Amino acid sequence: MEERGDSRLLDESVSPLFEELVKNCSKSGNLGTLISVFLARGVELKESARCENSLFVWHAHNALFIVRVITKLLLEHYSEEDTLQRLSFQLPESSIPTSISGSADPVEQLLWRTVYTMTELPLTPATTALQLEALTALQVFLSAQLVQRPAAHETNKFFRILHESCNDKEKIQLIKTLLQWIIQRPPPSPDPDSSGSFVAGLAAGLWSVLTLGLASSNTADTAEADADYPMVAKPVPPSPLADQSVLLLLVLATHTPHNRFREVLFSCSDVRGMGSGGELCVPYSELYVALTLTLHSEQTTLLLYMLLHNCHHFRLYVLPQYQYTVHSTSTDCTCCPSTSILYTVSLQTVRVAPVPVYCTQCPYRLYVLSRSDLELVVLPLLQALYLACKLSSHHVYMALIVLLMLSEDTTFNAALHDIVSGGLLDVVSGGLLHIPAGSVTWFTERPLSNMSLGDLLILVLIRTITFNMTKMR
Question: Are 213 and 2 in contact (CB under 8 A)?
Fold first, then answer.
């Protein structure tokens, strides 16, 4: 809420200046000059980052920040077509040669350079602020549909320009960069040191305004989030880059039904196994853990749903899988019955013949390869249902849909309820999915002990049904 308030205060403060800028833009060419400054500095950013020279980085950051704020206000007050015309206007003396990006259209150059800043500039403490600004600016450029209701044939002009300005390799690299930031969760850029001089102190104050309080309020925001959403795992360190990357991925994947960004995201494969060798390979294990860390947020829940629904390989990775291997078919163990044991396995079904006794010394050897960390994804979803009165209806609905999608698989249900508890799985692993003690602090209605994850799921679902029936009366 504080960030929204800061953004609103900024819009109100610059409103008079914005009106003057729009009125005189065709004569002064100031907006085109700002775009030219960003494009010119963008050419030198990679070398500046390599030499640890932050001067050009700050020039590019400030120019892109002003362009982003002006574009946001233009989209709120004018049509997308008018916004494009105002951004494209440049005086001859302020124009940038086409040799810089290969295009004479300033908007196309602006979008391409913004993507290039995100994908090609090395991520360092000095460049984090610029890359976060590029990430935020790209979301603003694609936000016309949020504030406008144009005819269908007039929509997505910015998106079409972006789609055409980036080649296939650059589209793949953009999706890869966003997924890497989600996985790595880079820390926010540190505040400038204000202890050295008046100029540094002024820069620190300006930095607080430019980041809309993100850098200074991370600790408070994290504490507030932990109070609202008690996490099962350790508190998640703040990462504006990761959080904004989730939002941009959702924008790119849902802006139009058929686009190359969406195809690349949903065709990604695992670098260490299933479906490897595709256009884009990401570590599924790290992506899975990164998504479960922030499932208390609505946007991450939506991204998980979209990956499960559209990315076949990722869905197979998330679902539990069992593999039973028999090393010997002899039955000469004196402590086990001499009956034949049958194990039938597939990706979707698991059937185990009943076994009265299982001996670890028997020639039969059972190996279970399974997702033993299902609680990482199930517990945050159950937590969202439990806190339904504090969350948006969209968030609660998405949590229900994800659980429904997972429960369609029989192996998930088998693992969730531990259907062979006390049998083979219980002997081998001690009960795979019993809830760790003290991990469900948000469930306060009764103490939980010796309870499986499936038991907790039923409890929360019954509570959700009761809550909604009471609410409907």
Answer: yes
Three-state secondary-structure class, residue 452: strand
Q: 359 with 333: CB under 8 angstroms?
A: yes
| Mean pLDDT along residues 327-346 | 40
Which residues are registered as beta bridge partners of 281? 269
pLDDT, residue 163, reads 92
SS3 459: helix
SS (H, E, C) 387-430: CHHHCCHHHHHHHHHHHHHHHCCHHHHHHHHCCCCCCHHHHHHC
By residue count, the chain amounts to 473
Residue keyed to tokens 């990604």: 268
Q: Which two structure tokens, joined as six digits, stand for 27? A: 């004569």
Phi, psi of 278 (to 5 degrees): -80, -170
DSSP 348: S
Q: How far is CA 184 from CA 240, 286, 290, in A?
A: 12, 9, 8
Which whole-number Å values give the CA distances from 169 to 174, 261, 389, in the listed order?
A: 9, 11, 44
Closest CA to 130 of 216, 183, 56: 56
Q: If you ran DSSP here, which 8-state letter would residue 148 be given?
A: -
- Band (102; pLDDT cuts 50, 70, 90): very low
- Reduced to 3 states (helix: H, G, I; strand: E, B; else coil), residue 434 is strand
Decide if 175 contacts 260 (C-beta within 8 A): no
Rg for the chain, CA atoms, rounded:
27
Query: pLDDT > 90: what percent of the chain?
Result: 29
Contacts of 422 (CB under 8 A, 6+ apart): none
CA-to-CA separations, 85 to 138, 157, 158, in angstroms, rounded: 18, 12, 12
> How confident is residue 2, by pLDDT bands cut at 50, 70 and 90?
very low
- Please, what is the Cα angle at 333 between 330 and 335, to 5 degrees? 145
User: What is the CB-side half-sphere exposure of residue 4 using CA atoms within 13 A?
Assistant: 1
